[in-house]
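Morning F.,

Quick status update on the modeling queue. The single chain you submitted on Monday has been processed. Sequence for confirmation:
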Amino acid sequence: MLEALRLFWHRRQTRRKMNRVFGRGKDPYAYAKSPYELDRLNGMARALGPGPFKHALEIGSAEGAFTLRLAAVSERVTGLELSEIALRRSREALSAAENVDFFEADVRTWAPPEEGGFDVIVLGDVLYYMDKPLVRDEFEKLFPRLAGWLSNGGRILLAHGFAGDAERILRRGYRERFEALGLGLLSESVLGKAEKEGDVCCLVSLLEKR
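Structure tokens below.
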């Protein structure tokens, strides 16, 4: 009961925050023109490779910027998003893509289809929104949950921004949690260059279920 209440409160607060951001107007993160976002999206695509993939899951699909790329190399794509505003825009942007399904859902409580597993799971700039003291137990349970959704040979792509060494250690910890569950690291790179304090780089890691 207490866990459910914590998740409800945190989900509500996060949804409100994201709706405020996306409520400012289309593309509030400047996916289409920000050097950081373009570098991140291109780096994610390079790390993942050309496919083809059978079923990809994107957690935190936002307005569909990376979903569009996944749809081009996957037979089927499932996108999860908390913000109904972002979700509406992603559905509009990919209305012609018959292989994409979007759900307004919290990955910590959402249940995937029973048939098969995902051969790709993408988490781009999303885990740190759930990495909070109030829902720490629920956050830690997420890693084996996601690993269990992977088919044999399936891959998890992580891409999270950081500013400074302390945040980089936290982001690296996400990859290390999956490694502790038996996933193997295939590649890892840092995108961007921190020339002054506060500059944001992105840690991109690709892991495989063996």
